[in-house]
Amino acid sequence: MSQIDSLPPLREVVERHGLTAQKSLGQNFLYDLNLTSRIARAAGPLEGEVIVEIGPGPGGLTRALLANGAGRVIAVERDRRCLPALAEIAAHYPGRLEVVEGDALTVDLVERLGGKPARIVANLPYNIGTPLLVGWLSLDPWPSWWTSLTLMFQREVAERIVATPEQRADYGRLAVLSNWRCETKILFDVPRSAFVPPPKITSAIVQLLPRQDPEPCDKRLLERITLAAFGQRRKMLRQSLKAVLAEPADWIEQASLAPTARAEEVPVSGFVRLANTLAERL
Ligand code: SAM
Q1: Residue 232: DSSP 8-state
Q2: Ligand 1 pocket check for 128: Cβ under 6 Å
């Protein structure tokens, strides 16, 4: 029995169901239900909320979400071996846990939610964390069906999400997309020792809250510009943006930026101006 519910401890669940962690599925499990409760509570008041969890594994975070009052949890898991353990949790919380067997990159969540909003809370498999995030940030119309993201990433990915031009090495396309559409924050670190097996580096919980009115601009142009600019991040914009426009100097000045600036010095608002002034020229 654990401190947050009357289900067996996770170590026992993992052993009983033979859930040896598989590297190919990014499996590093959390056994400490106090820690998973802290992550669940970081997602805000959960009472009555619909939560989408990606990769529940043996269910440590799932149990914490339910024990902390989540109204309904939709958990998407690719590893069939985890389904019996998750079924035990579903039986303990009747009608509140729906387990979807499948690949989170392709599962249609909108249909399952029936048009209702949801929060996404997950200890993401490290190998698909960034593509999943980029997918959620790229949905249109904006704001989309999810109302918050509370996600565990490797610390270095977390730093790339929240970076500003002040943190030049980390600032790049992921930070521009994330901070254009969301307010982003690292909430706390999770040490390697919290996982079974321990990963190579520290992890961190990141929160992304969608901006209701991000500065309007064409997302595809923004992506094209940041791809070119950060593809040659040490070069001046007047050079790197030639990949977008043959003679970019006038356009860069029209966007109130110095043609000698480098991508890593340009704030999100600068990239938005570049996208909007480019739209006028096309
Ligand atoms: N939530 C559990 C925890 O905190 O202990 C497990 C987290 S583990 C880092 C990542 C989980 O994502 C694993 O259970 C793995 O099987 C699952 N997973 C990996 N790839 C997936 C995919 N494409 N779609 C859904 N789940 C996936």
Answers
A1: T
A2: yes
